[in-house]
Amino acid sequence: MNVNSKEPTIEEIAKELELTTEEVSVALDAIVDPVSLYEPVYHETGNAIFVMDQVKDEKNIDDSWLEEISIKEAMKHLTDRERNILEMRFFAGRTQMEIANEIGISQAQVSRLEKNALGHMKKYL
User: Fold this and answer.
1) Looking at residue 63, what is its pLDDT?
2) Which of 2, 45, 56, 77 has minimal Cβ neighbours within 10 Å of its Cβ?
3) Does residue 2 lie in a domain region?
4) How far is residue 114's CA from residue 119's CA, in Å, rounded to a whole number?
5) Does 16 fall in a domain?
6) What is the mean pLDDT of each run of 10 residues along the chain (125 residues)?
7) What is the rounded CA–CA span in Å between residue 118 and residue 97?
């Protein structure tokens, strides 16, 4: 409150704090009461929809994060050749024939190396 017992304007606050009106506006917008993730935002049909339902991330759930870490750790136990084949095959989406042509072996050898590498990884998953 200022001397006149009224709320100061954004311009007055900015001048007093030596800030731009935009900085003051952003700061004032940031001052909001926290909302519970379990606060219902809609419940007309009997099935409530909560804030959590609106911000839920289906792609980056804990399980996929843990799986990714486990796979990376298991791949550390492979030879460089096996790791390279699995990376090309499953992370780069290459076919066994494409990999075979690139590294100069047969498709059957790629298949065999891939199968052995996956079997080896299973021990660590």
Assistant:
1) 67
2) 45
3) no
4) 9
5) yes
6) 76 93 91 81 76 69 77 93 94 94 95 95 88
7) 18
CATH assignment at residue 110: 1.10.10
Give the pair of three-digit tokens for residue 57.
Answer: 């991330």
Residue with tokens 């911000």: 55
- Note down the domain range covering 99: 76-122
Distance separating alpha carbons of residues 125 and 122, to the nearest angstrom: 5
Domain assignment present for residue 63? The answer is no
Q: CA of 17: how far to CAs of 10, 22, 23, 26, in Å?
A: 11, 12, 10, 14
Task: Please give the tally of structural domains in the chain.
Answer: 2
CA distances to 32, 50, 72, 114 from 62, rounded to whole Å, are: 29, 20, 16, 27
Instruction: Tell me which residue has tokens 């996929």.
Output: 64
Residue 83 identity (one-letter amino acid): R
Please state the φ and ψ torsions of residue 111, each to the nearest 5 degrees.
Answer: -60, -45
Q: What is the pLDDT at residue 111?
A: 95
Q: What is the pLDDT of residue 2?
A: 53
